[in-house]
Design goal:
The chain contains 5 helices and 11 strands, in the order ββαβββααββαββββα. It is mostly beta strands.
Length: about 270
């Protein structure tokens, strides 16, 4: 995993200038050439005419300068957003980006609890999940009290000690637990143009580029849990808010299954 690009930003290396028809931002980074290049989006030096993360506008200057024989580079990137006039200012253009981060309560299925997964106090395997389902369907009170059930072959099966711990919670009516998960939001302001797209809603995706301080937890996967567009009356501006929720493992989203077979996971 490459080092976040912001790590290479030199002190005072981010500058901004604004005028009625232009926004200009200059960033200066320094570091070992190969690692700095790898930290850039796509692992390549910035390309003039393309976007630079979530910075409004397009790259107008990309200047990686080798510092003598040290193998280090001073990278200067300038990003400009220009507007034609007051009436068509930035038609459909990204002009502003803001971020927020909170910790929210998320209700998760009981068997997703860390205590019942790898590294926990009572880790369950696939067979345990099947045995718990069989035990739940058992109608004999005697067998149920003994954490047993009759399987499809007519054999009496006893739950493992870890599965019995989970079954005890289920018998007590505990089906979910309250987890605390990071929720990140990015709000983009677009001047003019059509409503922002919501095509990524409900999909697994990478964390926001340009988030202050970088990804708050690189061990998590992120699910797009909402895309909201707002246009205030009497203005030409659209505000699009994208919400990402962090999870240890995303099993599926609205288009893709990420949970493999037992053989694939072993």
């Amino acid at each position: 995993m490459s080092t976040p690009l912001d790590t290479y930003l030199i002190p005072g290396g981010a500058q901004e200038t604004f005028s009625e028809r232009r926004e200009s931002r200059t960033f200066r980074y320094t570091g070992e050439a190969a690692t700095l290049k790898d930290a850039c989006p796509g692992g390549v030096w910035p390309i003039v005419g393309t976007e630079w993360g979530d910075v409004p506008g397009r790259i107008t200057v990309s200047d990686p300068q080798l510092l003598g024989m040290s193998g280090h580079v001073l990278l200067t990137v300038q990003v400009d957003a220009t507007f034609a006039d007051a009436e068509t200012i930035g038609l459909g253009s990204l002009t502003e980006t803001s971020f927020e981060l909170e910790t929210a309560t998320v209700w998760r299925p009981l068997l997703e609890h860390p205590g019942f997964n790898t590294g926990g106090s009572n880790p369950l395997v696939y067979a345990d999940h099947l045995d718990i389902l069989g035990w739940q369907a058992e109608t004999s009170r005697t067998r149920k009290l003994a954490y047993q059930y009759i399987d499809g072959d007519g054999l009496v099966t006893t739950l493992s000690a870890n599965a019995q711990r989970a079954a005890r919670f289920i018998a007590a009516g505990v089906q979910q637990y309250a987890d605390m998960a990071p929720v990140a939001r990015r709000t983009r302001k677009y001047s003019g143009g059509p409503p922002p797209s919501s095509a990524l809603a409900g999909l697994k995706q990478t964390f926001f580029t340009g988030f202050p301080g970088g990804n708050p937890d690189a061990t998590l996967e992120w699910l797009n849990t909402g895309e909201r567009g707002l246009r205030a009356a009497g203005t030409r501006d659209w505000y699009q808010t994208t919400e990402l929720a962090g999870a240890t493992k995303i099993l599926l989203d609205r288009t893709t299954l990420y949970l493999g077979t037992v053989e694939e996971e072993e």
